[in-house]
């Protein structure tokens, strides 16, 4: 398998590239970044693994970087080095970068699976899909916004609450007991505790704090780094976890992890999600890496509190999707 990382020299790109270099399913790793593509590739090439690594920094090298890629990961752009950076600031700066990269993907690797890590995911994924659509390519089923970090945080934070109360018997069941749906920012993130027995161990206040911590997990890291970065290491880990699941599907095995979700274009209306074209849901992915369905059944199991959270998430996602679609339909492209 060939994986290309666009933005490989950044805070997410470097640790993600390291994890991919160590992944035995990756045969070839192409690393592009206008600042550091050569250096990261040189560094990783000294690690004794059979994976071939090549770095790129120049625009004219992008054809070689992207051609024959099975998976292309976009993690280029700016991150949140401060909680004062607004979502709109991220959007205005990163959509310009994403636009250039996606045009190259369409030109040189239109059949690849595209994973979007750059933020804001809720708006950038619709931009990527609409750009392909403008070229006559419906690629919604092979473009994934990576929301895995929200799932990982939910697993970790729930375990911390239970362990803090002296409850350890559910540790091995937590991963199977949580799904995260919605989007990938603030109130658009909705963690769902499927195991009602586990959920009953949390008081109403504990549950509310759990949800808020998951929704604001990024701020927690930004504040802890005190202006010197954002959630780069955990995001790289989360991105690699999703790639592992995807590679497993491509090879015909079940894959690691449980309840993996991603932010995708919905091929058809989902009961309970009215008038929303994109949403993060647990996925069914076939051996070609295509999303062939989402697990909408969990929406029927929600209690009143969870339904209210989903309603808020739908409202936020609609606004974010419209922002991305308006960018493409306007004079920007």
Number of domains: 2
Summarize the main sheet: 6 strands, parallel
Oligomeric category: single chain
Q: What is the count of DSSP helices, taking H or I runs of 4+ residues?
A: 12
Q: Identify the overall geometry.
A: globular
CATH superfamily of the largest domain: Lactate dehydrogenase/glycoside hydrolase, family 4, C-terminal
Lateral arrangement of strands in the main beta sheet: 3-2-1-4-5-6
CATH domain fold name of the largest domain = L-2-Hydroxyisocaproate Dehydrogenase, Chain A, domain 2
First-last Cα distance: 32 Å
Question: Would you kindly provide a written description of the structure presented here, covering whatever features stand out?
Answer:
β2 (28-32), α2 (37-45) and β3 form a beta-alpha-beta unit. The protein is built from twelve helices and eleven strands. The chain is of the alpha/beta class and 333 residues long. The longest helix is centred in the C-terminal third of the chain and has 26 residues, at 304-329. The mean pLDDT is 94. The chain is globular and about 55 Å long.
